[in-house]
Amino acid sequence: MSQAARRRQKRDRRSDLIEAGIALLARETLPRVEDITAAARTGKGTFYLYFDRWETFLAAVRDRLLEDYQMDMQIRLVAMSKDTYWHILETEIELFVRWLMSHGRIHRVVFHGAEAGPPIPSELAATGTIAKLIEIGQEYSLVSPDVSAPIAAQLILGVLHAGVDRIDHETIDEAIPEIVRFVTSALVRQEVQ
After folding, report:
1. Hey, how many other C-beta atoms are within 10 angstroms of the C-beta on 134?
2. How many C-beta atoms surround the C-beta of residue 117 within 10 A?
3. Main-chain dihedrals φ then ψ at residue 192, nearest 5 degrees
4. What is the mean pLDDT of the segment spanning 123-135?
5. Which residues contact 22 (CB under 8 A, 6 or more apart)?
6. Do 31 and 60 lie in a common domain?
7. Residues 153, 179: one domain?
8. How wide is the angle at C-alpha 175 spanned by C-alphas 61 and 27, nearest 5°?
9. What is the spatial distance between Cα 126 and Cα 161, in angstroms, rounded to a whole number?
10. What's the CATH code of the domain at 2?
């Protein structure tokens, strides 16, 4: 087997473990390493070849979820223009809230759990993405230039995260418009009269 094929196979095994973890973490009980390796059809030693401890594995699961979301979001943002900014921003807020809600158990474990692991890499951090969206709105003269994008991004993520932590699946459809209205009203450029 060539070195390139071995590297590809190595990436695939790591990916298989992460995918198995995502599926099993969605269940009510926290899986054991043995459960994950059985689902990925690998041995326990293979798990520890890629992840030195449980927290490292959970960080990899978290990062995979964020990478997947960001890739999908980048596709959606291609259509953004001055005319579509608010519509796309509102849609993105709704999609982000629904995405967090859809990963309920996983969300609690990888973002809130005691074992949540190392900090989120800056290129995957939601605050960076939100700040970029605010800056785009400022370039379009739709968002006030007085808004500090990094600070506003932290506050907005706090609102979104707290909203998701407190709403349930039965009330999500009525909560989302309120969350969207709250976030976008904080960004709207006020015209000076």
Report:
1. 24
2. 20
3. -80, 130
4. 89
5. 61, 64, 65, 106
6. no
7. yes
8. 30
9. 11
10. 1.10.10
Q: In which domain, by residue range, is 19 found? A: 1-51
Provide φ and ψ at 168, rounded to 5°: -115, 175
Question: Do 63 and 35 belong together in one domain?
Answer: no
Token match 């969300």: residue? 107
> Which two tokens mark 81?
């223009």
Residue 192 located in a structural domain: no
Could you tell me the two tokens for 86? 């608010």
Q: What is the C-alpha separation between 62 and 58, in angstroms, rounded? A: 6
CATH of residue 141's domain is: 1.10.357
Tokens representing 6? 């071995």
pLDDT in tens, 62-110: 999 999 999 999 998 898 999 999 999 999 999 998 988 888 788 888 8
Angle at 26 between CA 23 and CA 29, to 5 degrees: 110
Mean pLDDT calculated for residue range 153-159:
90
Burial letters 24-37, b for 16+ CB under 10 A, else e: bbeeeeebeeeebb
Main-chain dihedrals φ then ψ at residue 24, nearest 5 degrees: -75, -35
The pairs formed by 1-9 with CB atoms below 8 angstroms and a separation of 24 or more are none
